[in-house]
Design brief:
two-stranded antiparallel sheet; globular; transferase; Spore Coat Polysaccharide Biosynthesis Protein SpsA, Chain A; Molybde_CF_guanTrfase; nucleotide-binding; binds guanosine-5'-triphosphate; molybdenum cofactor biosynthesis
């Protein structure tokens, strides 16, 4: 039996390119966050949300919400730090992360990351058609100190963090529908493209 895993959906960014809260924009009639929740939820033992600002806007999802410990929006690494801190507080040794703006998360992501995370590794992260996808990862909470150190030293890129910690890479390919499993929707145009992909072809 595998160790319990806390899933944390990362929605702590500013959504400036989308112009409104990305996690709440509708794709195929449902908020993006709901798509990610529906895919990540069954893969983990509990799910929480990393988000900043008024938590009330996510109340209908019934998720525990954890804000960044760093108040100045330093980027996704702060979300990862908050996720691992929540995992530690709740007694989880493992945290699986997924961004709230990537609605095609593979349904076997956590299983495959778990297989790759051997005892010597602190993280297993995904790679896809566009290379490293470090926000789709399985992290030991013991990686928290390396993350805090990187943040303290203003090294904010998540992919750079990986050179500080032993990690494994897991490659995911597009499915038969050729959708990049990690396509993230940053702009209204990205959203429109994803909407077209999901729309059933009219006869
Ligand atoms: N916790 C936290 N997460 C962040 C922060 N900035 C970005 N993220 C998350 O990192 C992932 C990728 O974010 P981006 O798309 O690069 O940034 P964004 O702020 O969401 O959107 P833009 O403002 O359009 O760049 C998403 O899951 C964001 O929620 C931050 O300062 N804190």
């Amino acid at each position: 039996m595998r160790e319990p895993i806390l899933g944390v959906i990362l929605a702590g960014g500013l959504s400036s390119r989308m112009g409104r809260e990305k996690a709440l924009v509708a794709l195929a009639g449902r908020p993006l966050l709901e798509h990610v929740l529906e895919r990540l939820g069954p893969q983990v033992d509990a799910v929480a949300l990393n988000a900043n600002g008024d938590p009330g806007r996510f109340a209908s999802f019934g998720l525990e919400i954890v804000a960044d410990l760093h108040a100045d929006h330093p980027g996704p690494l702060a979300g990862l730090a908050a996720a691992l801190e929540l995992g530690r507080r709740r007694g989880f040794a493992l945290v699986a992360t997924a961004p709230s703006d990537a609605p095609f998360l593979p349904r076997d992501a956590v299983a495959r990351l778990t297989t790759a995370l051997d005892a010597a590794a602190l993280a297993a992260v995904a790679t896809g058609p566009n290379g490293l996808e470090p926000l789709v990862g399985l992290w030991r909470v013991a990686a928290a100190s390396a993350i805090e150190k990187a943040l303290a030293e203003q090294r904010r890129a998540v992919h750079r963090l990986l050179s500080d910690i032993p990690h494994r890479l897991v490659s995911f390919e597009p499915g038969p529908d050729e959708v990049d499993p990690f396509a993230n929707l940053n702009t209204p145009e990205d959203l429109a493209t994803a909407e077209r992909r999901l729309k059933p072809v009219q006869p």
